[in-house]
From TrEMBL:
Membrane keyword on record: yes
Source organism per UniProt: Crocodylus porosus
Compartments where found: Golgi apparatus membrane
Biological classification of the source: Eukaryota, Metazoa, Chordata, Craniata, Vertebrata
An example Gene Ontology CC term for this record: Golgi membrane
Chief localization: Golgi
Cited InterPro entries: Glyco_trans_31 (IPR002659)
EC number(s) reported in the record: 2.4.1.-
Record Pfam families: Galactosyl_T
Family, as annotated: Belongs to the glycosyltransferase 31 family.
Name of the protein described by the UniProt record: Hexosyltransferase
Region ranges (Disordered): 37-56
GO BP terms, alphabetized: poly-N-acetyllactosamine biosynthetic process; protein O-linked glycosylation
Top enzyme category: transferase
Keywords per UniProt: Glycosyltransferase, Golgi apparatus, Membrane, Signal-anchor, Transferase, Transmembrane, Transmembrane helix
Amino acid sequence: MKVQLKGDAICTLFLVIALCSLLYSQLEHLALAGNKEQAHKKPSSTQRIFPDPQAPGRYSQEEVIVARPRIIITKKAEVDDYSQTTTVSPVTYSTFDFKSYLLNKDKRNFKLLINQPKKCRRTPGGPFLLIAIKSVVEDFDRREIVRKTWGREGLVHGAQVQRVFLLGIPKNKTALATWETLIHQESLTYRDILLWDFMDTFFNLTLKELNFLNWANEFCSNVNFIFKGDNDVFVNVENIIDFLERRDPTEDLFVGDIIYNAHPIRVRKSKYYIPETMYGLGMYPAYAGGGGFLLSSQTMKKLSEACKEVELFPIDDVFLGMCLQRINLKPVLHEGFKTFGIVKPSAAPHLQTFEPCFYKDLMVVHSLKVPEIWLMWNLLHSPRLSCTQKKQVKKPFQWKKKTKMVTEAATS
Ligand SMILES: *[C@@H]1O[C@H](CO)[C@@H](O)[C@H](O)[C@H]1NC(C)=O
Ligand SMILES: *[C@@H]1O[C@H](CO)[C@@H](O)[C@H](O)[C@H]1NC(C)=O
């Protein structure tokens, strides 16, 4: 009996030791493999966008956990905007399938289901400015308000302006069953719809960017300048025309709300999460916030060629930044582009009144509701608008100034 127990104990001990050594050797092997991969992934000086093209779809759980959260975005011009962007960007678990994205990354040219081939041929010499607006089929009311306000076609300060909306196939076709009829009717009525045969999702905006540049190169090469933006912005087209009138469309021009030194977000929870397997470098090239930016005809043509050579990247703004880097063009920051919205004092929401004179000096303001766009446009175009106190309204949302004004008002 005793002998048997002793034998069992020895046996168990032996098994445990064997198991431990096996585990240890496995761990060592994993660590080695990991190190190798790390060394392999060092960004090369040639700035390859995908560090490991041999195995583009590979990303394991370990890598994701190891990746440390980094500072999200630091804007050179306005540190104030930083807090705004972090609160605005939705924090949802990324359901993005990087693997299938990378597998399908060569599918990048999609059929144009609705075209406006004569858009830029109606006026001799072509339009001075083409306004290209990213929209989704469901946003009918946004397109309507843009058509009625800042996106009007015709002469603005003597310059010919044309408009197109950039659309894909709605993801949820049951949400708006009549979408096809609607879009065809809109196209017939306004002649401003471009519809491509890809699913209109956030991560497919890069496809919209690419296919629009190709379209512009093919059907609108006679344009002088292009404004490209979202459908929830307010654009002061008059200011843009004035700004562009002094520029040469045959020279490079790319102006907007430029973001410098942005780091890829390695936090899985973020909407903008990018694993290192997809982008290995620590920093993105300078890029323009997608809310709105300007480019010349010359730059459009160059970009349309350059973007063909760049691997698809799921964040469209950054993707365009990569194309700019490829043609060695530095995007220019302009203070008039507020694509992260205007900073408002959150502690005093009653101060968020519209100040049209403030908007008068801007070019693009992001994140506005439909009635706000309507109101702003109408206030700015009111004959009664006079902005005499220019100095005071330059920064109407400044904390100190406003508090003073409120206390003054309260005491008077
Ligand atoms: C599509 O939209 C309909 C109506 O809004 C909604 O009931 C349904 O859940 C949506 N489907 C998906 C897959 O989101
Ligand atoms: C992009 O569009 C294509 C074509 O419709 C679709 O297969 C793909 O799933 C979409 N990708 C994303 C990330 O939504």
